[in-house]
Design goal:
This protein is an alpha/beta fold. The protein has a single domain, classed as Alpha/beta knot, CATH 3.40.1280. The chain has six helices and seven strands. The longest helix is centred in the last third of the chain and has 16 residues.
Length: 198
Amino acid sequence: MRGYFGIGVECVSKSMNVGSLFRSAHAFGASFVFTIDAQYNLLKGNKVDTSEATNHLPFYSFPDPESLVLPSRCDIVGVELVDEAEELPSFRHPHQAAYILGPERGSLSPFVLKRSVYTVKIPTKFCVNVGIAGAITMYDRLISLGKFPRRPVSPGGPVEILSEHKFANPKLQKKMAPFRRAAPLAEVEEYLKLVDEE
């Protein structure tokens, strides 16, 4: 899957929810995780985050929404249950994205909503847990941007098999074969032998 993504939460107060979100982020291949204006206790979060995501992913703790810093061309995607938000199943995920979820008993701040390039909602009757909402969002990203065969038309139907990616025309590969050389590592080994002999 091309691109990268990070995921974070704003104004959260329950460390266990953040731990669950970070564990899912680690499992789904997030590039970084973050909190904004959050009361996050890493020790409490690690009770749920058994993968210890913050030991494997960059973790940023921003004191307020105004201090949020992201890589250039990284689009903010606010995940919020508001009328004007696009429904997640119809959303085209950007290749470089930072997903921001709101707190347990509240919404994303007006500043974050204004700064969001996209706002998406999970089509549910009411809000779900922050960790669950994050996992659903990351799963949707995975199935929409990943290289998976299409689902069968009917339950139990045949699954389409993806063909292997072809890197170059076989005729071109044959023409280039005489020019192929050993990897530079072999040259380094030869150089080291010469140095040892001197």
